[in-house]
Amino acid sequence: MPGPVLDFDTFFRTEYQRLFETLYLVVRNRAEAEDLAQESMARTYERWDKVRDPVGYVYRTAFNLHRSWLRRLAVAAQKLREPPQEHEPDAIERRLDVLQAMSELPHTQRVALVLVDWVGMTAEEAGRVLAMQPVSVRGRVHRARAALRRRLGGDDG
C-alpha cells in the first residue's frame, strides 16, 4: 500500500496523469477520459476527509462513472437501433484488430489488463483499485491475455 498522502493537492499532482492515461486506455476517447478523471477527482476531493484509500477510491469512482455512462448509452442505442454495417476484415489494420479484441473482452478483464499491462500496476495495486484480491486480478489478466492470443493469434506481443 502506498504511503500516506498528506493533502489532496499532493495526491492530485501525483495521481491525475496516471488516472487519465488509464481511463484513456479503457475508454479510448481523450475527452471522455478527461471528463471521467476530472469528475472522479472532484468526487474524491468532496469526500477527502472520509477517504482511507484515495487511489482505490478515485479509480473505483472513475470506473463506476464510466459504467453508468455505458448503461445510458446502451439504452439510447437500443432506441436508435440501426442495421449493423459490414466491415471488410482485410482492410482493418492490426491496431484496430487489437482495439476490437480488447472491446470484446469482459469489462473486468479489460480493466485488469489495462491496469497491469499498460499502466504498470502490480496485481496488489490493481486489486485495491478494483476492490478484489490480487489473485483475482492475476486470473482476469491471464484470461484476457489468453483471449487476445486466441483472437489475434501469436504471443502476448
What does this structure look like?
This protein has 157 residues and is mainly alpha-helical. It has two domains: 1-82, Rna Polymerase Sigma Factor, Chain: A (Orthogonal Bundle), CATH 1.10.1740; 88-157, Arc Repressor Mutant, subunit A. The chain has helices spanning 8-27, 30-46, 54-79, 94-104, 107-118, 123-130, 134-152. Helix 2 packs across helix 3 and helix 6 crosses helix 7. The longest helix is centred in the middle third of the chain and has 26 residues, at 54-79. The model has no long low-confidence stretch (mean pLDDT 82).
Provide a short characterization of the protein structure.
With 157 residues, this protein is an all-alpha fold. The chain is built from 7 helices and no strands. It is globular.
Number of separate strands: 0
N/C terminus separation: 30 Å
CATH architecture of the largest domain: Orthogonal Bundle
Unreliable residue stretches: none
* Structural class based on helices, strands and sheet pairing: mainly alpha
Taken in chain order, the helices and strands follow as HHHHHHH
Q: Please describe the biggest sheet, giving its number of strands, its sense, and whether it closes into a barrel.
A: none
Q: And the CATH topology of the largest domain?
A: Rna Polymerase Sigma Factor, Chain: A
The whole-number mean of residue pLDDT values reads 82
Helix content: over 70%
What radius of gyration results from the CA coordinates? 17 Å
